[in-house]
Amino acid sequence: MKTAVVVGPKGQDGRLATEYLEKSNYRVIGIGRGGPVNILSKSSVSSFLASTKPDEIYYLAAYHHASDEKLPDPEVLWKNSVDVQVTGLHNFLSSIDEQKLNCRLFYASSVLAFSDSSPSVITEETPPESDSVYGKSKIMGMELIRQFREKNGLFCCSGILGSHESPYRPDNFVSQKIVMAAVRAQKNPSERLILGDLNKENDWGAARDYVIAMHKMLQAKKPDDYLITGQLHKVKEFVRIAFAHLGLDWEKYTQEDSSLLTRKTASKIFSSQKIKKNLDWQPQTSFENMIREMVAAKGGDLVH
């Protein structure tokens, strides 16, 4: 039986990865906040790896704030982002290297590693650049992965993830705000959903499919970095489908207020052709079924 370590087991991806790996006959060990392993302590990480000798590590921990949340002090934001997305990762990579462990590591990066000034079509060859603290720290993590792979010979890779959803998605993300508003509207006709830009396009996919892609990356013959993405959909498409699953006309409940926007972002096409070709990965969950599952999980009375 293989042993897998999931760093960040209580987040959406961590929960789904744990479920998937256990069903795949892995022994899964989760490392979360406040646990016996301090990812910011090199000695703690090193001792843990020496005792467990895992076959695979899924580094899914992230320090992230939704765009509509009040951000902490810039220095605190930067320190926490670098701590989780860079320092912790480095402790795992360097410990694997020093102990010469036969261990493969996946690092969850993000399409937020690209900015409005990036090309309109993004591939793995596109140089990352970001104007957000989160994106910049993810770029630093991706560079660590590249260095340990090329210079130290580790089997480690970055998955550059587009927006991915499931019932485990935190409630402060726009996807869950839409779903919860639809469920409330089914019981209360006066419910109103107010969004900043209904025509904004997001790259959306089902988180469960992305977890399968992560696993495929660590089963490959050689390590590499891949974009793991879905398809572009407008926010109003998400709204329409969520309300339609409950037999409701979304336009009766939805309002647009541009003053809610913190900033406008340009739509990008993120190509996942490389992982589809090299690793034979294909998303299995449709956009409609992904939303349907989220609506059902929030207690919506589905009509079809």
Task: Tell me what you see in this structure.
The protein is α/β, with parallel strands linked by helices and 304 residues long. The chain folds into 2 domains: 3-164 and 204-228, NAD(P)-binding Rossmann-like Domain (Rossmann fold, 3-Layer(aba) Sandwich), CATH 3.40.50; 170-202 and 232-267 and 284-297, UDP-galactose 4-epimerase, domain 1, CATH 3.90.25.10. It is 40% helix and 18% strand. It is built from 9 helices and 13 strands. Strands 2-1-3-4-6-10 form a 6-stranded parallel β-sheet, sandwiched between helices. The protein has a 3-stranded mixed β-sheet with strand order 7-9-11. Strands 5-13 form a two-stranded parallel ribbon. Helix 3 (74-99) links the parallel strand 3 and strand 4.
Which descriptors apply to this entry?
single chain, 304 residues, Rossmann fold, UDP-galactose 4-epimerase, domain 1, 2 domains
Distance between the terminal alpha carbons, to the nearest Å? 41 Å
List the secondary-structure elements in sequence, H or E: EHEHEHEEHEEHEEHEEHEEHH
Main beta-sheet strand count, sense and barrel state? 6 strands, parallel
Uncertain residue segments: none
Oligomerization status of the protein chains: single chain
Q: Which CATH architecture of the largest domain would you pick?
A: 3-Layer(aba) Sandwich
Mean pLDDT: 93
- Order of strands across the main sheet: 2-1-3-4-6-10
Number of domains: 2
* Global structural class: alpha/beta
Number of helices: 9
CATH fold title of the largest domain: Rossmann fold
CATH top level assignment of the largest domain:
Alpha Beta
Strand content: 15-25%
User: Considering DSSP H and I runs of 4 or more, what fraction of the residues is helical?
Assistant: 25-40%
